[in-house]
User: What shape does this take?
Amino acid sequence: MEHRDDMGAKLGMWVFIFTEILLFGGLFLVYAVMRGRYSADFHSAAHHLNAFIGTINTLVLLVSSATVAMSITAVQKGDKRLAVVLLFLTLVCAAVFMVNKYFEWGHKFQIGLYPGSDLMLTMNHGQVMFFSLYFFMTGLHMFHLVVGGIILTIAMIKVNRGTINSTRYVLLENGGLYWHLVDLIWIFLFPLLYLIT
Amino acid sequence: MTEEKTHHPEPSYLVNTGKYKGLMSWLTSTDHKRIGIMYMYAMMVFFIVGVLLGEIMRLELFRPGQQFYGPQTYNGLFTIHGIIMIFTVVIPGLAAVFGNFSMPIMIGAKDVAFPRLNLFSFYLYILGAGIALTSQFLGNGPPDTGWTFYAPYSIQTHTNVVAAVFGAFVLGFSSILTGLNFIVTMHRMRAPGMTFFKMPLFPWSLYATAWIQVLATPIVGITLLMVVAERWFRIGFFDPSLGGDPVLYQHLFWIYSHPAVYIMILPAMGVITEIIPTFAQRKVFGYKAIAVSSLAIALVGYFVWAHHMYTSGMSPTARWIFSLLTFLVAVPSAIKVFNWVTTMYRGSIDLKPPFLFALGFIFLFMIGGMTGLTLGALATNVHVHDTAYVVAHFHYIVFGGVGFAFFAAIHYWYPKMFGRMYNFKRANWAFGFLFIGFNLLYFPQFIIGIQGMPRRYFDYLPQFTLGMQLSFFGGILLLIGIILMLTNLFSKKGAKAPDNPWGGRTYEWTIPSPPPLENFEVMPVMGPDETPYDYK
Amino acid sequence: MSTETVHITPYRTYAWVLIALLTFTFLTITVTWIDLSALTVFVALTIATIKAGVVLTYFMHLKFESSLFRVFVIMVLAIYVLVILFTLSDYLFR
Assistant: This one.
């Protein structure tokens, strides 16, 4: 009765990733249209973002992607301890990313900059659009990061228990794929939001 | 046809073998056949509700002026009629019911690739439908935006838009997961020897459909989330007073919702492609052309969305590009019609109910398709945009096309599903009522549409009274047809069905009716010279 | 069905990929300091695309998977690019 098809499972994950790409794709489309219309406002609004935190978060995510990828190699080679350590490092990176985001968003909320706030309603249309996109896109990205973190936590526990091992590790591979998707989206979000000043 | 009583040691999938009995054994089943049947029953309930809502609208339109209820109620009615019929009936439609029931068998598999995910999709479907329906009872009254939720009105209205939008979002998620499941199933689980170009054509159409589900649905998903965010947090992507762009909403909405029409119609075409060779006992004409035209429709159909927006203030360049693409997508559709008709040529036609419904489909789909070209052409579109003509065209495709194909599919696979036959004579009568009622209901709408009757209007000028009343009587005949058909199928147990009542050649006719739990006692293998349609 | 040969990527490859990605990141940041006006976005997006390509190829193993995956990825990206282009056919020509 046991039917196992790792290739099929991976194919399923990829198809799901395509869905996610188009989900964010809709937002990037809105970005393209709005940026075309309000490019000056986008430039001035982007000054309010902290490019330093953005850069740190980019680096953190890239490192976390590398550690996930390496953890698969470790599992394939049967090095359970190293795999768990690498996955743990990934989760630490995710936590750092979230903490940074917390301070970034928290600061904006403190100065009264959030969707629907009085401050935002006094701004130019283009700036409103920029911050709306900023909150919506980074918010949705964070949601995906949390989901990815949960999947990788489960994977880490399973590696530790030995249910993910060198003969069956498709769950870890799929979790890794999802994590790289989170990274991929950030690779585009970062320059489009932080670097257009 | 097989007369002898073959001995089937395996119990059928309808017999409970798991740890639960009765309803629970169904609700916990990951068997693709049971999930398909559950979709069918759920959809039938929604369909009947949708039909009754439609009839209530026709009742109000029987005479000009207010008859039974006010305009706000009417706005709520056409909105919920659209939401139910589009998102819970025709979009999951044939793919969820017959795709689940028949497709794995037709490609020689025991089940879909991810059976538990399949059950999860079903629950998402029920959940999404439930959320959408709560919009009628909670909050500030039923939404009145129409099923299209056009901004900025959908952001301004005080009615309960969020529930409806969120329901549609969940239903979309269910549709994505079904599509994902089917793609992987068809890639990984075909019988040995069955290459892609030896796969039956209903699975082929589902394959094309599944890609649209996966690649188009997320766009509307994110759009609906944006509408919710606008209503809750005043994020103003579509609100002109905040610098947003309502036309952008229309773009995003139709990037999904036009391909969604192909999500509905492609599986319908697939079913017709199965029925015609079976009842003509002829090898299907132009197998590859039909298979490839499914993909072509899916691909080109993805890029025609803005033909819904000719009058929205879009750039002239975009208008002619989208008009051109709209004409292009008619080509693969016409290829299919040509192939169906040619398959019948010199066949030994057996005019049983499924075939009758298939013929009805071709007739109605042709009218729907041709009038679609009127709407796709820029000059004529401006004249009939947002009139009853659009309503008629749309219903010819979605009800005349998808609906009749659905009825054809039920009559075709019913013996396989339940192991029972139904009364042919009554099925034919039902078809008669449905066909005449349908045309009487929607054809007048073409005429009054050209004469200038706008769609979604509660009231109308006296000159449209005759057309409206013909439509009303058509609606009654249609309702009688539906009742006749459903009672014929589901009220009385018919005679026991043989394994292959129609002389079909695809795999589902080689196994018992109803099939055993794991479909095949011996897994099928396709020989090098075999094709799915080895008739004469 | 799980008889496909398993490709084990050495740690070293990933380390190099990470270094490349980090380099590209610093490159984008320095590029935005130099004012290229209209070109800035173009350069930033080009670099982002290259980075995405590297992630897809190595981290997501596209290089070592069956070619089916590559075909799908290219198809999906092509469709998305077409969606953007067709939408812009409205906005750029208003």
Notes: Chain C has two domains: 1-63, 66-94.
